[in-house]
Amino acid sequence: MNIDLIKIYINNLTKEQALNFLNNKSIYLSDSEFEYLFKLIKTEYKKIIDEESSIMNDIKNNISLNNYLKLYNLLKKYKKYLK
Question: Is 29 exposed, middle or buried (0-12, 13-18, 19+ CB in 10 A)?
């Protein structure tokens, strides 16, 4: 996995791009869920990609279960392309 490319992408990711991507995947977060998740992605993307249990539990506790499951499945789907 080329973490440098991911870092560049995350650093350039805008809220609008993230929201559009989620909406295109039928994931509709509340404003507070989105703000929380966007901030977390910008700062902790490596832990999210590695599926560290502490970060995954934190996400699970801060967004609805339905959205968490959708996001988790999306992570699994796209993670296979990062290897």
Answer: buried
